[in-house]
Amino acid sequence: MLVEKRREELRELANRFGHALKNPQLLNKALTHKSFANENQLLRLKDNERFEFLGDSVIDLIVSRYLVHQKLDMSEGELSKIRAQIVNEQSLAGFARDIDLGKYMLLGKGEETSGGREKNSLLSNTFEAVIAALFVDSSFADVYQMFLGLYRRPIDKITEEKRITDYKGQLQKHCQSRILAKPQYRLISENGPDHNKVFKIQAFILGEPYGIGMGKTKKEAEQAAARISYDLLMARSKQTV
Predict the structure, then answer these.
(1) Quick check: do 4-164 and 167-240 share a fold?
(2) Lowest-pLDDT choice from 37-51, 58-72, 73-87, 140-154
């Protein structure tokens, strides 16, 4: 049986996701590290490892579904790379810290004294278990909305950063699939002292001039030119639909 203080802690955590708990025992299990269960065997508590396993799959599915629904012009491999940037130990531990998850974890004395509440590995694993508990306590549709309600913005940021850093790849893929040609980049100008140069580069597709980009390196200028060219091609394609 859960004491009222613990029930209140569990309700507090669930409220961070906007969820009203139906079965507090599920969330308590998700927060129970095996070290605590082993040290308190008389309580007959089950640890959260099976929930970690389930939560890993649930989070993968949530992020995959969201990325697909965004209708990004990216290949399966590129989407997988973005998902890997979102669903990893460091990112999940960051999500856990955002909701102060360490405060609610049940840890054994050894983990407690060694700073377990701040360990990335414990935080990320417990976060997965919590998502599993919320899934079991509600539904996939509900936990999908709970997760995105808290983490849509950081997911969008990671996705946008990936798009920004790989406009050359996107432009090349688009050109090769539509017009069977690779974009070419030409240096237009190079100004400034050696320690603070500014490069201006223009993209050409089938000899036709497209976007001009500027940057402190040639690579940065090429990415800027590719971004402008890609956006121009996307705008033209929408006009012809």
Answers:
(1) no
(2) 73-87
Give pLDDT tens digits for 171-230: 998 898 888 889 999 999 999 998 889 999 999 999 999 999 999 999 989 999 999 999
Per annotation, catalytic residue among 9, 56, 166, 222: 56
Of the candidates 78, 128, 166, 222, the residue annotated as catalytic is 128
CATH says 4-164 is which class? mainly alpha
Total Cβ atoms within 10 A of residue 191:
10
Q: How confident is the model at residue 163 (pLDDT cuts 50, 70, 90)?
A: low
Could you tell me if 182 and 201 are in contact, meaning their C-beta atoms sit under 8 angstroms apart?
no
Residue 198, strand partner residues: 191
**Is residue 39 flagged as an active site residue?**
no
Cβ atoms of residues 216 and 196 within 8 Å: yes
Domain limits of the chain? 4-164, 167-240
Active site residue 128: yes
Q: Which CATH class is domain 167-240?
A: alpha beta
